[in-house]
């Protein structure tokens, strides 16, 4: 093979030069270098593991001017000097064959990151230097105690480079890791999960200790019928539900009457009070510990994103403030369409908080006379977009709370609930803490949520799963 | 019959494979396999007949998996060089060595025949990537216009995904193959707004292992469906809300495929039954000790696993462990009789399974991922001389006919499920009696399949499916088809979703 692999910076510079030479009016080149390593275990033994490197290059060429501009988008996983020319040519040809894009806007003006010249960051199996031995110990301990452990640890670093013909030279490297672990004994199961940036703060033995504590709660088993029950949702379960709400904040879909944030008769519900409680849903790429990409990245255009917005600076945004819907996600195009003053693209983190709320899940348990404590939720899907009614199930730990204490394990349930309604109905909340959604955490892990007490959570039927 | 893409054949497949496999052997691997994969994908979206997004991607990379000292090791990369292939082999062996202390189980694989440099291509006519983008957009704009111009349609969204997958596989036992597959997944959705609510109506054309010919009428009647969508939407917006209760239901294949996928397809994956998915998607109630005895459903229930069905999304010549495609029984006369397995599971459980062979269910969604046990096309077989859908409906006095898929969810052991659909028709005295809205059905898997009184004949059989079934950690996306006839179920719980929302 004589193909020459390019550095990300070379890919950007040569791609932009080729685009200019071949007649593109403007161009954006996105390069994402990904490095990841993982461990997976089941039945107290390692099952699979891997180390992967990935690279993706996206060329967005534009032709025309103003609102008559068309875009062509071509992506490839591996680019050499030779193939880059083909990609750029294909992107330009695609743009020329396309009609004007309705979301066309001038490309974002250029700024340059101070670390633009740095190489991509990498992770290796060495990230588990402390974690792997403690995992090995926990697997042995579980086997000796006739418990079974199942789980997954993943660490990745994504280094993103964005360059444009308008001068953008942005680079950002983001590490992300998480552990999800399930413990089982003969009759019950329990789950713990946590997000991390580098695994220095994750100890498998500590996670196993918490699993053991939860399995211990199952010393007594109680059958509870379906129905509406007072239910404590810990931060992980709140994240399970609120991530779905977050993904429904698309401004165009709402404007066109397709989501829970659509106003009856037309338009959006921006300005409507969703909750009488002082609830806030906030995103900020600079949130300590939950850092996200600080600029917009769009490989395709959609309701709240636009390929013309690549590199747009993302700023702290209140989606819900004081219970009132403040913003929906928009590109510059959809901001104009729905008549809001500024574009608010999506940000890959959020914090849900309740003003003045303090305390932990355990504190909520201490204040509950009779009800349920969940661990996490699973297989959550939209049943009705109009109310954002979701269905899903409890799993790996539902507990009975009596007189302020966990007194036993309860069967699993299917629920039908809307997270928007839950924000209007909860009666107590705790302090917001970093959380890890059981269902969505592998994809969207930068969340912080409080525990909530719902007075009448709708358990639609009993699930036999255990 | 199309040819294997010449550009893929021009890649140094054998050279890279030889370098990786030799290096793995030199480092002491007892088994090694190499994959070179190129996956081209195109996604075109229109909104109200205007092109919103069109994106063309290509994922090209190589992977090495080894068994070293009885432990798996895996590594993947993107540079198509001998040096990279060698480095990946070294990384894979290193990964196995690092993992060895926490591996309590020696990996052994079922023996399989060796296939030397064979070729397989899926059944399609027109490579979607050979059709000019403008031609594709023009067709989709026409389809969109037809729906959008109808009264009562506020918005229309169109999305078409196409995938062209080329793979070269070689292992240290001597098997090597080159394989090419094409698949396509179109959805057209009309949105409507009534005075106090909104709703949508989507096409029921399933994704298929076909080429662009699918969009122009081969395998699906678009003219007919597009003409009817606006009327279906208008009727749904005006329909009365269902009264929750217990009903007899006739389920159309456009809905039943998804119930099969969730409650049979995933439940008969042996890796789940053995606990390998316990931390993620969950296990299965259909445990190995119940093979041959578990009453899964009524005696009319016959379900097969199939890697050979024409136009199936999970149809292959060979899986990602070099095993040839096969067909076998999973449920026969209502009894659990088989599982979906890979080579490791086949070897470990051959005494219980009654066979030492894998049935070819190992698959990775790209070169960047490890092959895992993956679903074959799992299909409910029709009755040879079975009734038509109309005849099934005629057997119902007070019930519901369910068409098209929408919302789906099932628990972590595949017991409790809830599904909605696109259209729900009230059945009164054996005849359709207009649409209902706010309908969901909820059941326990064995109760539901046990209540299946009759399956339709071959004339009702449709191959449904999905492009994006998620499984494993790290998560992988798989495509799979499910064929089924219409079927009649007695006494199914029907929910009113508005009431479930507390309104």
Short note summarizing the structure:
Chain A is 21% helix and 37% strand. Chain A is of the alpha+beta class. The mean pLDDT of chain B is 96.
Write the layout of secondary structure elements.
The complex is a heterodimer of chains A (466) and B (503).
Chain A: H1 8-21, E1 26-42, E2 45-63, E3 70-76, H2 81-97, H3 131-144, E4 148-164, E5 169-184, E6 189-196, H4 204-217, E7 221-222, E8 227-233, H5 235-247, H6 251-255, E9 279-283, E10 317-321, E11 324-325, H7 332-337, E12 350-354, H8 361-366, E13 370-384, E14 389-402, E15 405-410, E16 412-417, H9 419-425, E17 428-429, E18 433-435, E19 447-449, E20 452-463
Parallel strand pairs in A: 7-15, 8-13, 12-19
Antiparallel strand pairs in A: 1-2, 1-4, 2-3, 4-5, 5-6, 8-20, 9-10, 9-12, 10-11, 13-14, 14-15, 14-16, 16-20, 17-20, 18-19
Chain B: H1 6-9, H2 13-26, E1 31-47, E2 50-68, E3 71-77, H3 82-99, E4 118-121, H4 133-148, E5 155-171, E6 176-193, E7 198-202, H5 222-238, E8 245-251, H6 253-265, H7 270-273, E9 303-306, E10 327-332, E11 335-336, H8 343-348, H9 350-353, E12 362-363, E13 372-373, E14 377-380, H10 389-394, E15 398-403, E16 408-410, E17 416-419, E18 423-428, E19 431-436, E20 439-444, H11 445-450, E21 452-455, E22 462-471, E23 476-484, E24 487-496, H12 497-500
Parallel strand pairs in B: 4-6, 8-15
Antiparallel strand pairs in B: 1-2, 1-5, 2-3, 5-6, 6-7, 8-24, 9-10, 9-14, 10-11, 12-13, 15-18, 16-17, 17-20, 18-19, 20-24, 21-24, 22-23
Helix pairs in contact in B: 2-3, 4-5
């Amino acid at each position: 093979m004589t193909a020459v692999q390019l550095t990300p910076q070379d890919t950007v510079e040569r791609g932009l030069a080729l685009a200019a030479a071949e007649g593109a009016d403007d161009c954006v080149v996105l390069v994402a270098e990904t490095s990841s390593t993982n461990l997976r275990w089941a039945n107290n033994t390692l099952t699979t593991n891997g180390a992967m490197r990935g690279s993706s290059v996206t060329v967005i060429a534009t032709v025309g001017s103003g609102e008559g501009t068309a875009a062509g988008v071509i992506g490839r996983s591996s680019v050499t000097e030779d193939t880059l020319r083909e990609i750029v040519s294909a992107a330009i040809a695609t743009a020329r064959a396309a009609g004007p894009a309705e979301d066309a806007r001038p490309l974002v003006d250029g700024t340059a990151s101070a670390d633009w010249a740095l190489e991509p960051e990498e992770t290796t199996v060495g990230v588990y230097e402390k974690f792997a031995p403690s995992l090995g110990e926990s697997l042995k301990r579980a086997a000796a105690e006739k418990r079974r452990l199942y789980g997954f640890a993943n660490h990745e670093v994504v280094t993103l480079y964005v360059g444009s013909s308008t001068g953008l030279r942005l680079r950002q490297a983001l590490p992300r890791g998480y552990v999800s672990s399930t413990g089982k004994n003969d009759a019950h199961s329990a789950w713990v999960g946590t997000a991390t940036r580098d695994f220095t703060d994750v100890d498998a033995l500590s996670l196993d200790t918490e699993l053991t504590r939860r399995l211990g709660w199952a010393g007594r088993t109680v059958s509870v019928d379906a129905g509406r029950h007072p239910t404590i949702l810990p931060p992980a379960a709140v994240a399970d539900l609120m991530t779905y709400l977050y993904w429904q904040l698309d401004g165009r879909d709402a404007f066109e009457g397709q989501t829970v944030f659509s106003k009856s008769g037309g338009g959006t519900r921006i300005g409507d009070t969703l909750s009488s409680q002082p609830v806030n849903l906030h995103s900020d790429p600079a949130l300590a510990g939950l850092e996200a990409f600080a600029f917009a990245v769009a490989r395709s255009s959609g309701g709240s994103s636009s390929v013309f917005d690549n590199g747009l600076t993302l700023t702290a945004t209140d989606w819900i403030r004081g219970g009132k819907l403040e913003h929906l996600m928009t590109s510059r195009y959809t901001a104009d369409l729905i008549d809001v003053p500024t574009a608010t693209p999506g940000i890959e983190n959020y914090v849900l908080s309740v003003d003045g709320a303090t305390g932990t899940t355990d504190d909520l348990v201490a204040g509950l006379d009779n009800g349920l404590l969940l661990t996490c939720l699973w297989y959550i899907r939209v049943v009705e977009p109009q109310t954002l009614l979701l269905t899903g199930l409890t799993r790996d730990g539902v507990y009975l709370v009596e007189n302020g204490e966990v007194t036993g394990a309860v069967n699993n349930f299917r629920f039908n609930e809307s997270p928007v309604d839950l924000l209007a109905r909860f009666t107590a909340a705790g302090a917001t803490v970093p959380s890890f959604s059981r269902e969505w955490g592998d994809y969207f892990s930068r969340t912080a949520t409080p525990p909530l007490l719902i007075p009448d959570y709708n358990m639609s039927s009993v699930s036999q799963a255990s | 019959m199309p040819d294997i893409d010449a550009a893929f054949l021009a890649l140094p497949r054998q050279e890279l494979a030889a370098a990786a496999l030799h290096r793995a052997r030199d480092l002491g691997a007892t088994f090694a396999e190499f994959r070179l994969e190129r996956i081209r994908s195109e996604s075109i979206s229109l909104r109200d007949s205007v092109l919103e997004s069109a994106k063309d991607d290509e994922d090209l990379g190589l992977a090495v998996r080894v068994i070293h000292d009885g432990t798996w090791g895996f590594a993947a990369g993107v540079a198509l060089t001998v040096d990279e292939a060698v480095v990946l082999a070294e990384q894979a062996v290193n990964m196995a060595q690092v993992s060895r202390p926490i591996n309590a189980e020696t990996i052994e694989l079922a023996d399989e025949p060796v296939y030397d440099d064979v070729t397989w291509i899926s059944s399609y006519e027109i490579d979607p990537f050979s059709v000019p983008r403008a031609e594709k957009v023009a067709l989709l704009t026409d389809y969109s216009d037809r729906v959008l111009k109808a009264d009562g349609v506020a918005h229309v969204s169109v999305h078409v995904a196409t995938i062209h997958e080329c793979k070269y596989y070689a292992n240290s036992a001597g098997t090597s193959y080159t394989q090419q597959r094409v698949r396509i997944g179109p959805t057209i959705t009309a949105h409507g707004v009534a005075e106090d609510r909104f709703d949508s109506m989507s096409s029921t054309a399933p994704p298929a292992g076909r080429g662009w010919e699918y969009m122009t009428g081969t395998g699906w009647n678009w003219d007919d469906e597009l003409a009817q969508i606006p009327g279906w939407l208008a009727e749904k917006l005006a329909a009365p809300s269902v009264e929750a209760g217990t009903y007899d239901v006739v389920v159309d294949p456009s809905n039943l495929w998804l119930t099969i996928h969730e409650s049979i397809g995933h439940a008969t994956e042996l890796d789940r039954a053995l606990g390998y998915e316990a931390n993620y998607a969950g296990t299965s109630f259909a445990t190995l000790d119940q093979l041959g005895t578990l009453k899964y459903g009524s005696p009319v229930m016959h379900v097969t696993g199939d890697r050979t069905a024409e136009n199936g999304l999970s149809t292959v010549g060979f899986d990602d462990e070099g095993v040839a495609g096969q067909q076998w029984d999973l449920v026969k006369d209502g009894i659990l009789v088989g599982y979906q397995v890979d080579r490791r599971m086949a070897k470990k459980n051959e005494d219980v399974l009654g066979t030492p062979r894998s049935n070819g269910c190992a698959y990775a969604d790209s070169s960047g991922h490890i092959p895992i046990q993956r679903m074959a096309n799992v299909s409910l077989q029709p009755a040879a001389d079975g009734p038509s859908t109309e005849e099934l409906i005629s057997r119902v006095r007070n019930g519901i006919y369910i068409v098209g898929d929408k919302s789906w969810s099932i628990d972590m052991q595949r017991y409790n499920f809830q599904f909605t659909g696109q259209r729900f028709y009230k059945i009164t005295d054996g005849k359709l009696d207009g649409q209902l809205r706010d309908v969901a059905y909820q059941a326990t898997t064995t109760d539901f399949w046990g209540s299946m009184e009759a399956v339709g004949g071959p004339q009702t059989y449709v191959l449904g499916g999905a492009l994006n079934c998620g499984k494993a950690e790290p998560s992988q996306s798989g495509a799979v088809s499910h064929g089924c006839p219409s079927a009649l179920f007695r006494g199914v719980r029907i929910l009113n979703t508005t009431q479930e929302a507390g309104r």
